[in-house]
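Quick one: Cuticle protein 16.8 from Galendromus occidentalis, structure tokens please.
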Amino acid sequence: MRSFIVAALFASLCVVHCQDLYGDLAQPSPYQFGYTATSEEGSHGHSETFDGTQRAEGSYFLKLADGRERTVTYTADENGFHPEIQTNELGTESKNPGGALYKSSAPTGPDAAIQADSQARQ
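--- reply ---
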């Protein structure tokens, strides 16, 4: 029981002290970030901005050394998460499932099978 009282006292002191130092951390504030990382295998990155109210916009990407690429551009707001995916990955095709917009430049059908077979033989 004594350790519970000490822990509760410590937690309440921390909350008061943290609010003095940082303000009300529950309040969202505008931000912007981004990064890109590159290696011999390819690159990837992410960037996002948030307006401090209810809307975030951003994108992230993956580019592999073998030429495959995927970029997701999105907005997130009071109505949900709304992505648009652009890719050239084999096995994908342009569609709009579940409110997401897919834009594929990959070959489909027999052309995709031929390309996949030739890549497997390399």
